Amino acid sequence: MSDRTPHFEGDAPTYGRPSRPEVAAAEARSAACPPAEPGEHRLCSLDELVDGGVRRFDVGDRELAVIRLGSTVYVIGDRCSHQDISLALGEVDPDDLVLECPKHGSGFHLETGEPSSLPATRPVPVYDVVVSDGDVSVVIPEAQS
Predict the structure, then answer these.
(1) Strand 39-45 relative to strand 12-13: parallel, antiparallel, unpaired?
(2) What is the C-alpha to C-alpha distance for residues 68 and 47, in angstroms, rounded to an integer?
(3) Hey, which end of the chain has fewer CB within 10 Å, N or C?
(4) Number of CB atoms found within 10 A of residue 75's CB
(5) pLDDT at residue 94 greater than cutoff 50
(6) Total Cβ atoms within 10 A of residue 78
(7) CATH number of the domain enclosing 32
């Protein structure tokens, strides 16, 4: 479906904004999981990540897309900021360090989370990664007040 195809909420077209069912699904996922504790959380061993691939992990209420490019690992928020779609289902552009959303093709920079193409206009979160003794961990920051 093209992004210019209107999605109707009541009598008003939304043009790509998440529909009520997508928003409800996201809220249900958040309500079902406790908040992620701040600090370092082990995800897997480096060998479990395919070079050039993406794998999804949950840490508390955080949904994460984990990308391995050689010996470097990136972790960004897994949900597209344009629509509530898993970015872990997308493709990685290793030259531009971008993960592409599988629904509408918005790209998200692996180091900044900033969208590199429309229709997304808001960044996704990025997380610090620790690779130590062959283990990959993500650092969940303290909640900001």
Answers:
(1) unpaired
(2) 10
(3) C
(4) 24
(5) yes
(6) 24
(7) 2.102.10.10
Number of domains within the chain: 1
In a domain, 124, yes or no: yes
pLDDT digits (tens, 9 = 90+) for 34-93: 777 878 999 999 999 999 999 999 999 899 999 999 999 999 999 888 888 899 999 999
Residue 75, token pair as written in the block:
């972790």
Cis peptide leading into 119, omega within 30 of 0? yes
| Domain that residue 32 falls in | 8-140
Which helix (H) or strand (E) is 113 found in, with range? none
pLDDT tens figures, 108-143 = 999 999 999 888 889 999 999 999 999 999 999 987
CB atoms within 10 A of CB 50: 10
Instruction: Please check whether residue 87 lies inside any domain of the structure.
Output: yes
In this structure, is residue 2 part of a structural domain? Answer: no
